[in-house]
Amino acid sequence: MQKHSSEQGFTLIELIVVIVILGILAAFAIPRFVNLQDDARRSVLQGVSGSLQAASALVYSKSLINGTASTASSSANIGQGVTIATAFGYPTAGSISQALQNLTNISTNNSGTFWPTSASDSANCEVVYTAATSSIAPATVSTNSSNCS
Question: What is Dmax (Cα atoms) for the chain?
Fold first, then answer.
């Protein structure tokens, strides 16, 4: 008496076709995932830029309240024992980092330049804070994200 097996496996051709299809999908998917790191660094720069603008505006508001917004060199106490050096009411480039609450994964040279710690070319992936130079020229924040790899 012979038993006929109804169990069958995949043929070699079917396995090769599946491997080829997975290879084609991987060829298109991997570059998209690799590029996400650059996008993430650019997003970090946008977040730092927004934080710098908000911190600058808050310190300026505090300086207006204190009556020191037109003074070339002063300081503003922003609470929790933090005092920020100001120029014409805006934070100086050296003191703006004190106004930011969290600099995790962000590097700074303490003169107004910020970049993601993981960026290989920090000169082309940075946010630069420039302090006010007069009572009519406010502080500026500029972003360079031309090479955030």
Answer: 105
Put the strands of the sheet holding 113-116 in their side by side order. Answer: 106-108, 113-116, 126-130, 140-144
pLDDT recorded at residue 17 = 93
Are the C-beta atoms of residues 107 and 115 closer than 8 Å to each other? Answer: yes
Q: What is the DSSP letter of 105?
A: T
Output the six-digit token pair for 41.
Answer: 């660094």
pLDDT tens by residue, 1-29: 566 666 677 888 989 999 999 998 888 87
CA distance 74 to 51: 22
Buried b / exposed e along 53-86 (16+ C-beta atoms within 10 A): eebbeebbebbeeeebbeeeebbbebeeeeebbb
- The answer to whether the beta carbons of residues 76 and 63 sit under 8 Å apart is yes
Residue 149's SS3 state is: coil
pLDDT band at 118 (very low <50, low <70, confident <90, very high): confident
